[in-house]
Amino acid sequence: GAWAFSLPLMLVSMAFMHMPYGNWIMLALSLPVLGVFGRMFFVGGWKQARHGQANMDTLVALSTSIAFLFSLFNTVYPRFWTERGLEPHVYYEASCMIIAFVLLGKLLEERAKGSTSSAIKKLMGLQPSTARLLAGGIERDVPIATLRAGDLVSVRPGERIPVDGTVESGESFVDESMITGEPLPVDKKPGDRAVAGTINGRGSFVLRTTGAGADTLLARIIRMVQQAQGSKAPVQRIADRIASVFVPTVIGLSALTFVLWLVIGGEAYFSHALLSAVSVLVIACPCALGLATPTALMVGIGRGAENQILIKDAAALEQMCRIDTMVLDKTGTLTEGRPSVTEWIDVVPPSDGLYDAVYSAEMKSEHPLASAVTAYLAGRGARRREVDSFESLTGRGIAFRCDGASYWIGSRALLETRDVRPSVELLARIDRLEQEGAGTVFVGQDDRLLSVVVVSDPLKETTREALEQLRRRHIRLVMLTGDNRRAAAALAGRLGIDDFRAEMMPDDKEQYVRRLQAEGRRVAMTGDGINDSQALARADVSIAM
Questions:
Q1: What are phi and psi for residue 211, nearest 5 degrees?
Q2: What is the mean pLDDT of the chain?
């Protein structure tokens, strides 16, 4: 809007300044720019002045208003100058172009920041708006807000869990990684706790509600993120800091200019004194300050985007070079964040068709690790065969027949029911892997153990190099994770991270960041899940993978 009026105003002032009623046309074009589009600068400048302070708004308001009022005086009463042998110049285009340029700078900066509330919107998107209420043997969809503690809610396969509650009946695996950071889905049986926003696997169950709507863990996280975002003081712009010194200096120089003209030249030079004083104020307007900062930020933000770094907040760039502590989530940050087969241990030489049989059976399985096994076998060229019979062994695994042979796949509990006893060396190796946070799947035929499949969350290829670069910059590394202590200790040991905390809930992570900040540290938090959102909002700089 400001540019729509400023460009024709500039054209008139440069090419048609002596046209009839030219000054009045320029006055008419400048009024909307100052009165409507540039109003924010005058309001901001006035608020600063009431508190005895000055910033960029003060400079813009002061210089543009003086240029405008000086021009208005010359338009209405040009004889004041002509009688003194001077031409009554007007500077409407200067005041309007200053506002248009600074507004353009603000627009560029706002676009670079993006929506500051997107993190909270994303969190809210995890909360279903309706739930399937089970009453009198009949299921019906109801708004979340109508649910009360004790209500029974049905959860179907693949759905996002709508409320906090305990499992009343049924069984399934639930992906809780966005809340706890645990990469492996958790088996939920009657009596176990389930949390709103987490994702059900292939089973179904009935929940007895303990919290709905604003009473859920997810809702509490959303509130804490809002509080943390609201409480973080905005970084003071460099331009504002300069302006706080610059404005009084410029006003002083302008007044000094006026006084010196009168002292040296006398009253006859009053018009020269006034013109020179106004010129100092107009010329001193910090167009460069107002534009250079957002322009430099746009270039930096653009270069970041080319390298897959999306910068939402310009203040983060200022803070980033000052951090001395990097807090790291484990799952999805240091690791890939999804389970995959990292080792396949053949206890006996594999028979022809074993991989095909396991691949075909796991395609039918509802177990969350089945997809990791099928992805691994597909990469090794396994093909799908006809499965003659298939039986799900609740909580233990599956049994099936393929090509006339009987197989079973499952957990350590299934080994005991089959009376299979692995060697001491193999058991020690399995124990060590499980202590490091890996999951194990056993494959057997009749009473023989054929293979042990190790499923874990592998390290990202770039993790070690990234940590080494941070160490070279003398940045303290801290790992916070919702995983169990053994798995956290094993990974921290492999990566050389001395400072780590395990079994951390979302508010624990935020409290730890607070503690570091209270010690005077400048903290950057790097995470990927909803479980990290409070700590991300609290940190001086937040980096989301």
A1: -160, 135
A2: 81
H or E element in which residue 494 lies: helix 485-495
**Measured CA distances, 312 to 237, 321, 493, 541 (Å):** 16, 16, 34, 11
| H/E run at residue 395 | none
pLDDT for 506-521, tens place per residue? Answer: 888 999 999 999 999 9
Task: Provide mean pLDDT across the span 258-286.
Answer: 78
172 with 202: CB under 8 angstroms? Answer: yes
What number is the average pLDDT over the span 103-119? 63
**389, 401 in Cβ contact below 8 A?**
yes
Question: pLDDT for 50-59, tens place per residue?
Answer: 887 776 777 7
Catalytic residues: 329
10 to 16, 60, 70, 101, 513: CA distances (angstroms): 10, 18, 17, 13, 53
DSSP code string of 405-442: EEEEEE-HHHHHHTT----HHHHHHHHHHHHTT-EEEE
**In whole angstroms, what is the distance from residue 194 CA to residue 200 CA?**
10
- For the chain, the 3-state helix, strand and coil shares in percent, each to the nearest 5, are 50, 20, 30
Q: How far is CA 403 from the centre of its chain?
A: 51
Distance of CA 425 to the CA centre of its chain: 46
Q: What is the pLDDT of residue 183?
A: 65
| pLDDT at residue number 517 | 93
Angle (CA) 355 356 360, round 5° = 115
Map residue 187 onto helix, strand or coil.
strand
Backbone angles phi, psi at 193, to 5 degrees: -90, 140
Per-residue confidence (pLDDT) for residue 463, from 0 to 100: 92
CA dist 327 → 483, 489, 536 (Å): 15, 16, 10
The amino acid at 70 = F
The torsion defined by the Cα of 176, 177, 179 and 180, in degrees rounded to 10, comes to: 100
